[in-house]
Write a structure and sequence with these properties.
Elements (H helix, E strand, L loop, with lengths): L2 E3 L4 E4 L5 E6 L5 E3 L7 H17 L5 H4 L3 H11 L5 H14 L1 H4 L8 H13 L4 H20 L26 H10 L5 H10 L3 H5 L6 E2 L4 E4 L2 E4 L6 E4 L8 E4 L5 H10 L17 H14 L8 H13 L4 H8 L4 H5 L8 H15 L14
Antiparallel strand pairs: 1-2, 2-3, 3-4, 5-6, 6-9, 7-8
Helix pairs in contact: 3-4, 4-7, 8-9, 8-12, 9-13, 13-14
Length: 376
Amino acid sequence: MTTKRRRFGMVRKLPSGKYQASFIGPSGTRQTAPQTFRTKTDADRWLSTVEADLSRGTWLDDNLGRQPFGDYARTWLRDNPRMGPRYRETCTRNLRLHMTALEDIPLRALTPPVIREWYAAAMRGKGGRTSIQQSYRFLHAVLATAVRDGAIPSNPANIPGAGTDRAKERPVASVAQVVTLIEAITPRYRGAVLLGAWCGLRRGEIIALIPQDIDLNAGTVTVRTNRVELLETRQAFDGPPKTDAGKRTVTVPPHVLPILEAHMREWSGPDRVFIGRDGKPMRGDAVRQAFTRARLKADMPGFRFHDLRHTGQTLAASAGATLKDLMKRLGHSSPAAAQRYLHAVDGRDAEIASALSDLAAHGNAARLPKSIVVKH
């Protein structure tokens, strides 16, 4: 058996008399041709084609392309530095429950028709529509990485609108309904409802609060961490907020402070603002269950705890909060999410129309009500 080196790659003669071609790929590992060649000239010709593809940026890693989607996806989940533990758990669960039909298929065999067939079957199945949309977005992200890795030439997950999360317009509670919820819920949880409704805190941010985060003299609450709870392992730990903007100090409306002060006196622990009956950090599921009981008493079926955040920020927008104000209170790093709270509310357009008539009558912009002056 002889080995002969060349300018690019290597060709060697096998004991069978056929020739094997290989080269060092962009990843730094040796890549072998998927087939052997009858003559050395054929092997040289294959290497020349590979060299040309590499120079044009069109080369595909055949070995990687033969890897099953399931194996590649799990590696992607393990090594993705931007993957949070909750989302990693969600993707792993969706892979197990909704994507079994794709797991053993090689990456290069995931063609658009194959993916369309899987998606259509999944949408006809018993899985929740939201979970299927999550699964599709996960699939699209994994295959986008496969394109960058040179495993496939283009992303075959190209179904228009398949991964779009068309969230339903969530309900906005009235001030009276918020009061009813506070009265209906177990006193231990009233502070959580108040912070969700009037300060825009997420549930994970609320149960992560420590006593030092509440400044009753200044009338502020500071968000430094977010409580993460994994569903399958029941593991719970403190982590950073979703974005850097999530670390924020929010001014508490004055009418909320007396109830928050009572909570700190009667229900807070030495290390946590919200604790369970066992003295340990309160679980998010305990808040959810208590809120579910309260919303039924308040005759608000379908109203979720997260809708308190939507309610409070919508009311803040109607009170004159600007986009930047809302971004700060919500902890959003971009205007897109906060923008939804600036939609018109009942009576707002009539107030603006009345103010315009007042301006027309008096010709003095200073007479406009301050609550609707546009701030930049």
